[in-house]
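Sharing a chain and its predicted structure for anyone who wants a worked example. Both blocks are below, sequence first, tokens second.
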Amino acid sequence: MPTISIFYGIVIRMFFDDHGPPHFHAQYGEYKATIDIESVALAEGRLPRRALELVLDWTELHQTELLHDWELCREHHVPRPIEPLQ
């Protein structure tokens, strides 16, 4: 599972050839969540409130890049790194 970005201790990853809808996986310590890219929403799992807010803000800023990385992963190509939230 390629790592796409890391910021504030949050690790963002995507699986190769994962099921739809387009999403990524976020991990913060022992917390794990799946984020829907198109709706910019928590799809599954749990993150602390502040970490979730940061992830959703980052998703809005990089939605186009995330969708492109999603397609790359679906085709078994390495996704491009995405700028971390600063």
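Comments welcome. The mean pLDDT is 96.
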